[in-house]
Amino acid sequence: MLKNVTFIIIDERTAFHAKHTIDGLPTDGSMVVTIQKKTRTLAHNAVQWPILNAFANQLLWPVNGQMVKLEAEEWKDILTAAYKEETVRLAMGLNGGMVMLGKKTREFKVAEWPEWMAFLESVAADRGIKIPLSKRQCAALGYE
Question: In terms of Cα–Cα distance, which of 85, 81, 79 is closest to 129?
């Protein structure tokens, strides 16, 4: 049985293999084919987390009237909203409280990634956040 298959179409050969695979699928409604633009890579993802963790470890932020440390995932929500220049979109939680809605980095296209990383670095510098990056992470960002 065919499981998840992903083709990155880089030439006629990979396009042919993708078409051939689709042609061989059952027509009983048991399969779904999705065609989309390429999104971020695992290397992109690996580079953003040390930066988000640096925010989480080094910066206090006002929450419910108190200055507290936030988790890296919470910083990602705040920074993504600022990057996309979103106005506040809040939804009521199921059991009260509020939930912030907005864009997710998993939706970013590859072409957006350098701008997102530059934004993170700029905000970190403005806030005095020191970002520890490994040689691999620096290479993924295009640094020496």
Answer: 79
